[in-house]
Amino acid sequence: MSPPSLGNVAFPNLSKYLENITSILHNVTAPPNLSEIVGCVNSSNLAEGCRSPYAPHIASSNIFIIYFIYSILLFLDILLTIQFIKYYRVLLKRSAGFRGAIAEDPIPISFIVPIKNEPLEVIQAMLMRFSDLDYPRDAFEVLFVSDDEPSAFAKIKALVESTAKDLGLNARAVRRTGGGRYRGSAFNWAADLAKHDVLVFLDVDSRIPRDAARRVAAQVDDSTLLFLGWDGYISLFTKLGKLLKFVYRYFILYGAYLGRALSGDLILALGSGIAVKKSLLKRAGGFCDCVADDYDISLKVLLAGGRIVYDGGAPIVVEIPSTYYAFRKQFARWVFNSSYVIRKYLPSLLKSRLPLRHKISLALNLMQHPLLVTTTVFLPIVGLAAAYTGYVIPPLPVAILEAALGVAMLVLLWHVVSLTKREGYGMLESLAIAAQNGVLSLMIDITAFAYMVMGLFRDAITWRVTPKGSSQLSFKESLAPELAYTGAVAAVFIWALLAHMWTFALSALALLLVLIYGLHLIKS
């Protein structure tokens, strides 16, 4: 009997349609059973990995290339993870950390603060923080370096002069009219205008510890670049902001800096909280006119025979992003900086007279962002490729590296949880936050990977100020990379179902669910 119709339009036979769907589901290719896996493990084929007998034929050379690249990433990730475990072990043994010296006799200091397109209230708040410094007012000056248009600068200058007069501070605003694209060249220009020989460079959103000037006065000399440390605060209490604050504190402040310094490894200074004398700045060649000015000057100082000292006192506290869009903008720039600096300085670093231990430590430090980004992007691809080619167990060398990295990551998380428990976090809470940050990395690293590749070939990108405060709420950018990634995985999942490839479909579904959860976190 033919299906009923209306004119030339035929209605589908619903029962036949359901029968076809049921047939497809019943004929989905089954994964290999336990006896097949045991047989593979007991055979000599384990060295080549265990594959499903239903797997499509793939050239062994193609599989080898994928696993070869994957193995290199796994090996480097293991080295980086072991390095951080060492830092946390040292940090947990010395719960009080360390504290740099504090000078009793003040020396003149010039604080240099770059500004561009900053709200007047942000500039005023920064100036007011200097009034809380435990330092004689006549022993320091504050220099705001502006790249703003003349009309905007006139308001800034008037605000700085009036506020400084009310607070009894020696502060002034100067406008740079040319000579470079980035703030590094502004730093060099301001250094020539500064009245004093000791210079401290700060971001305009920085919160300064009361004893910061005395710590600078005690430790900066003709061969020392001092880094005052770096922690973060959030101005908007969003869920994502709280997640990022956890990372900035426990992975960057405690792991990448305090733990590294306590272990005796060399560090590279971040952009806010750098103190240096004019003589060392000139000997190193000054700041670069590039986006990676902090890493650049750190490496220049080391290659010029100077040293970088991490001060263990209360760190400079700067605003960290509270929204996904603001964080993506900032993180993409960080990843570009790392790739740029690797390309420019790694050969010179390896040829330098630094001890081999410091060369390896610095190389891993520079590779940290590119390595994590590449692994985060490549790992899902390897997982899908393995599922498509039918690998139930990867080749033995790869399996060993995966197991080693898994153990190292568990040890690392145990140390992080031990550290967070001291400050009131529960174990499950810390693990949940770490997992959510891992999902965010999966989302953001699609964009970051593109910037990483650009850093390997380009010297510059457009510098755009990271939105701060309430301006983050109105700042939006396209989610095209994240949506395209999610859409591509969804298409793979549907195709795998239609092709009756159950293992492949299950792998794609798992990744798809993680990406959907990531899109949910972005909106939080």
Describe the structure in your own words.
- The relative contact order is 0.13.
- The N terminus is likely disordered.
- α3 crosses α8, α3 crosses α12 and α11 crosses α14.
- With about 525 residues, this protein is α/β, with parallel strands linked by helices.
- The chain is globular, with a radius of gyration of 28 Å.
- The longest helix is centred in the N-terminal third of the chain and has 34 residues.
- It contains 17 helices and 13 strands.
Defining key terms:
524 residues; alpha/beta; 7-stranded mixed β-sheet; 13 strands; 59% helix; disordered N terminus
What is the element layout, followed by pairings?
Elements: E1 5-6, E2 9-10, H1 14-26, H2 34-42, E3 50-51, H3 60-93, E4 109-115, H4 120-130, E5 140-146, H5 150-167, E6 171-175, H6 183-193, E7 198-201, H7 212-219, E8 224-227, E9 230-233, H8 239-263, E10 274-277, H9 278-284, H10 293-303, E11 307-310, E12 316-319, H11 324-351, H12 356-389, E13 391-393, H13 396-421, H14 427-455, H15 471-474, H16 480-498, H17 502-523
Helix content: 55-70%
| Uncertain parts | 1-12, 23-30
End-to-end distance, in Å?
55 Å
Number of helices: 17
Cα shape: globular
Return Rg in Å: 28 Å
